[in-house]
Amino acid sequence: MVGVVERGIVLGVALAGLWALQAWAGPADSLPPEKIPVTDPDSVIAKYSAVVASDPNDATSHYVLGLAYFKKGMLDDAIASFKTATRVAPNDDDGFYALGLCLRKKKDLGGAVSAFRTALELNDNAPEIIFDLGLTYLDMDRNGDAVESFRHAIKMRPSFVAAHYNLGVALEHQGKTDESLTEYNATLKLDPGYSAALVNVGKIYAERGYSEKAIQSFKKAIASNSKEAGAFYNLGVLSQRRGELQAAADAYIQAIGIEPSHSQAHNNLGVIYDKLGDRTRSIAEFEAAVVAKPDFVDALFNLGLAYYKAGNAEQARRRFEDVLRLDPKHQDAQVYVGELYFQANKIDKALGAFQAALKNKPEDVGTYRKMGAAYFKDRRFDQAAEAYDTVLRHVPNDLEARLMLGRSYAARKDWEKAIGAFEAGLAIDDKNAALRVELAKASFDYGYTSRAFSEIQMAVQKAPESAEAWDGLGDMDLRRGKLDDAERDYKRALTLAPGRSDALVGLGHICFARGDRKGEVDAYRQAVTANPKMAEAHMELGLALYNEGEVDAAIQSYRKATELDPRLAKAFYYMGFAYFRQHQIDAAVDALKAATQIDPFYAEAYFNLGKVLEKQGKKSDAADAYRAAVRSQPDYTDAAMALERLERQTGKR
After folding, report:
1. Domain boundaries along the sequence of the chain
2. What's the rounded mean pLDDT across residues 209-227?
3. How far is CA 21 from the centre of its chain?
């Protein structure tokens, strides 16, 4: 019962489409001809087992024994009995026909075809055998052979209802919907209550846009057969497409009541609960869909997405990875796996997932944007700039990409390119506060002080209701030492955006400059409360606590900062100081080394690492650290003097 999945945008939830029933042979599966009535299989098995034991060449007894096993569901024993019957009586078409039915039920489709063909060679005037051969071809997706078989069966018996219906199914599989509709209508002419045909007629109407006709057909199917799960399911799909969510949910619930393992109905019911914001029930329905059909990729993806929205990152990642095991080229799943690794600060794994996604869809701008963010977070600013530049080649007016491209250039101190990127963005939208604030900062750092002040004032003028603009003005006034003006700016930002963590950090800096240690700690505590994931705020809180003598608490803040941003070199640097003050020398060395590994040009970290190593008596290692500090900053006098002193003491250069 394979549906067509309607896939929306990445953040959408996949909806299983209209459902075409599988080939159906009529009210029940075909049964082998009963040469002797079998009403009590157990007694028949006991009786005829004794008969064939005494007379192994009694073909009829082997056949009856096979029929009893078949009715008991003991397929292997039935197959063995029918094989013996055909060996003993190789000219009996019933034996081969019965063997074919068992093999088909056992999913040995090749063996079933061989048995049915042998039966037809012995009896070419048996439409039932030809019909079951056609069903087997249908199971094998040999639709052309199935069509030929069903047409042959109908030619022999024009009133063969199930043959007309399954001919319609085979033709539909070939994409010949006009011909399939003709056969479904022929089925209904012979049997107006044939519910499976009514369902598939409704499906064709729905696909052609005749919703009302489709609904009427599904309702007729239900009136004819109240247990027709497919009719309820398809009514649900149509209602869902029309936005009638309650009606759709009711229909899916009916379908599931009839067929509890109806995976598509569970999936689509989960979609409805997701739209209604009922995360618990949506997850339960997607789980049920996956239990019913473990390889249902879209249900697995939806389950991952539901967990993602619920904030359960671990379960979400597992489900998306399950999707990729089934469909390694599933673009959306790859991107979400990357996003989850990104959120967990596992940047290399995130980049691996994004790169895999790009192999499948090389021009996907959204994935390049996420790659840029990952590279930027990992301080790999050259690669970040390349990723954002790729985004802009495809979408030149993407202001967020222009902003991040400029920030990437600024982070590597390529001021001219940074300024150019911000200016290009402002040429598109001159009221964009974020771009103008960054332009002001880059201009200031490049030495264009007057332009920096002009740009930040313009940011506030053009976007007076932008908290970011006022925040930027506060940063600029703080740099100029205008503490009262900076305080006013930050408070204005907080009025516009209460709890803005950047502004709270700025107020903390002002308190530090004024010597207000308690106010500084309070401001940083407010910042980490407002934004618990702001690594810089945790680091600043650690500094303030350290200066207050609360070294253990400072270390905890530094640890939190490095958990949130494992590439925040300054946090490791300050952590090293704190450990040293606590006389945890090995921990101090590890922290300072981590800072230099993250930032190979961090001269102060090398210098202080050297001092700690000297305390440990490791003069050779200390000299190497001082040497690295001087390489990173040739005018670093203290590092040069320390290196010269050690070289005199050790006699090594």
Report:
1. 328-396, 600-653
2. 93
3. 29
Q: Which residues pair with 6 in a beta bridge?
A: 15
SS3 category, 355? helix
Q: What is the pLDDT of residue 26?
A: 46
Q: How far apart are the first and last CA of the chain?
A: 78
CATH class of 328-396: mainly alpha
**Nearest CA among 190, 156, 185, 145 for reference residue 168:** 185
Cβ pair 372, 384 in contact under 8 A: yes
Predicted local distance difference test score (pLDDT) of residue 20: 52
The owner of tokens 């922290």 is 591
H/E stretch holding 4: strand 3-6
Instruction: Check: CB of residue 233 under 8 Å from CB of residue 257.
Output: no
Altogether, the residues listed in the chain come to a count of 653
> For residues 649 and 653, what is the distance between their CA atoms, to the nearest angstrom?
10
Query: Residue 239 and residue 275: Cα distance in Å, rounded?
Result: 14
CA–CA separation, 234 and 195 (whole Å) = 13
| CB contact at 8 A, 558 and 536 | no
Q: How far apart are CA 85 and CA 97, in angstroms?
A: 11
Please state the rounded mean pLDDT for residues 384-398: 96
Dihedrals φ, ψ of 17, to 5°? -90, -165
- Nearest Cα neighbor of 132 from 147, 150, 111 is 150
Query: Which element (helix H / strand E) includes 18?
Result: strand 15-19
Closest alpha carbon to 320 in 16, 310, 308: 308
137-181: per-residue pLDDT in tens?
Answer: 999 999 999 999 999 999 999 999 999 999 999 999 999 999 999
3-state secondary structure 470-538: HHHHHHHHHHCCCHHHHHHHHHHHHHHCCCCHHHHHHHHHHHHHHCCHHHHHHHHHHHHHHCCCCHHHH
- pLDDT tens digits, residue range 577-612? 999 999 999 999 999 999 999 989 899 999 999 999
pLDDT band at 32 (very low <50, low <70, confident <90, very high): confident
Buried b (16+ CB within 10 A) or exposed e, 258-292: bbeebbbbbbbbbbbbbeeeebebbbbbbbbbbeb
- In CATH terms, the fold of domain 600-653 is 1.25.40
Return left, alpha or beta for 26; rule: phi > 0 is left, psi -120 to 50 is alpha, else beta. Answer: left
pLDDT of 11 > 50? The answer is no
Quote the pLDDT of residue 472: 94
**600-653 has the same fold as 328-396:** yes
Q: Are 317 and 340 in contact (CB under 8 A)?
A: yes
What is the four-CA torsion angle of 177, 182, 185, 187, rounded to 10 degrees? -100
pLDDT tens digits along 292-314:
999 999 999 999 999 999 999 99
User: What average pLDDT is seen over the chain?
Assistant: 91
Distances (CA, A) of 570 to 290, 443, 595, 604: 46, 24, 7, 10
Exposed, middle or buried, 139 (CB in 10 Å: 0-12/13-18/19+)? middle
- Determine what percent of the chain is predicted with pLDDT higher than 70: 94
Q: What's the rounded Cα separation, in Å, for the pair 582 and 641?
A: 27
What the block records as the tokens of 617 is 């008596």
Is the separation of the CB atoms in 320 and 337 below 8 Å? yes
Strands (E), 262-403: none
Write out pLDDT tens, residues 486-518.
Answer: 999 999 999 999 999 999 999 999 999 999 999
Q: What is the sign of the dihedral through the CA atoms of 91, 93, 94 and 97? A: positive
Beta bridge mates, 5:
16
Please tell me the predicted confidence (pLDDT) of residue 29. Answer: 58
Structure tokens at 85: 């019957």
